Amino acid sequence: MHLSRLNVLEVRNLKNIQISCHPNANIIYGANGSGKTSFLEAIYLLGRGRSFKHRDLRVVINNQAEELVVSARLERSNPQGSHQLGIKRTAQGRFEARLDGRSLQSAIQLVEELPLQLIDAHSFTLLEGGPLQRRQFLDWGVFHVEHGYTSLWRRFQKALKQRNQLLRHGRMDEDSLRAWTAELLPLSDQVTVFRKQYLKELVDIVQEVANAFDGLGLLELEYYQGWSEGRSLAEVLEADRSRDIATGTTNRGAHKADVRIKVDGVAAADSLSRGQTKLLVYALKLAQATHYRQKVGRSCLFLLDDLPAELDYEHRAQVVACLNTLGCQYFMTGVDRKDFELLVEGMAHQMFHMEHGVASDG
Fold first, then answer.
1. Which residues pair with 2 in a beta bridge?
2. What are the mean pLDDT values of the chain's consecutive 10-residue runs (362 residues total)?
3. End-to-end CA distance of the chain
């Protein structure tokens, strides 16, 4: 799967970009503020229906425009065919997404059509941030390989929301609390089963990818389900009832899950340098893409913002080699063309020079 043609209109300082993309390596270089990250943001908008920089899409629209538009020609080999995918967002908040002229009803459908992996300055939070980032990492993987997971996850979120609303009420309806607790319990268990199975399948792939990078040791990925192992969630919630009422929230369950990541027996966030942390993030994301390809037979698209930052040439070359082995399309940005010339020497690629929001063949 790759984008063969990309059109971007009024995304931040990108006025009107129309380019043909290479099916594998695409390099965007230029000075700070030239629009490189906005270029990646436009592709992300196309695949997620949202920005990776701001929750409010109105600030992503060029301040002299009334709407932004991103569209692309999507080429697939499994099943084979070309498709036109596009999104539009107006300053008034209206959002539209279309595939081959047919309206899509939700951003979930965009995610299914264009599976993306983003690595940028904020990707460090996967290791250094809270459990939410690691749950999102797991759920991305499960969503893309288990067709029923989206429906399950939504039902789980609804039951959790209803239970928490009841807990926050001053005068609680006991029957309703029991009913929503009974609804939540099997959903939490099912989410946990899917996540555990996914992580079990991923662990060996992560280590295999990490072995291709110098400087990373033996990895351990351990799933914490959100409550004590060996006890049923029903027991835990019953024991926590007074605490849940006092705090007005459900304190344990699949929504409190985490992945504990260690390198050579030590928590990764505490033991790795900045460069090693970035390498491990690459290993985790590349492993996900490898697992996805093995399960689904399709490739992800990678967005790599400022690849040269905090990685020496050797490690950049190792990352690019892994991307090429996967056979996926990737877009990577950097300030200096020289940072990429040797990196892609002898391999097919496309370079774009970004200046004042305009992309030209570089």
1. 75
2. 95 92 96 94 94 85 91 85 93 92 90 93 90 95 93 96 90 86 97 97 94 88 95 96 93 97 92 90 95 92 92 91 93 94 91 93 82
3. 24
274-296 and 174-210 helices cross at what angle (nearest 10)?
100
Report the DSSP pairing between strands 116-119 and 301-304.
Answer: parallel
CB atoms within 10 A of CB 154: 12
The three-state secondary structure class of 332 is strand
> Tokens at residue 356, please?
């004042």
Alpha carbon distances (Å) from 232 to 82, 155, 225, 226 = 49, 20, 11, 11
Q: Is 163 exposed, middle or buried (0-12, 13-18, 19+ CB in 10 A)?
A: buried
Give the bridge partners for 20, in sequence order: 5
In whole angstroms, give the CA distance from residue 250 to residue 219.
Answer: 32
Q: Taking a C-beta distance cutoff of 8 angstroms, is the pair 190, 257 a contact?
A: no
Helix%, strand%, coil% for the chain, nearest 5: 45, 25, 30
DSSP conformation letters of 101-123: TEEPSSHHHHHHHS-EEEESGGG
| pLDDT tens readout for residues 342-357 | 999 889 999 999 999 9
| 333 membership: H or E segment, kind and range | strand 329-334
The secondary structure of 51-119 as a DSSP string is -SS-S-GGGTB-TT-SEEEEEEEEEEETTEEEEEEEEEEETTS-EEEEETTEEPSSHHHHHHHS-EEEE
| Residue bearing tokens 């908040």 | 93
Please give the structure tokens belonging to residue 142. 């499960």
Q: CA-based angle 88:116:75, to the nearest 5?
A: 75
Whether pTM > 0.90 for this model: the answer is: yes
215-260 pLDDT, tens per residue?
888 999 999 999 999 999 999 999 999 999 999 999 999 999 999 9
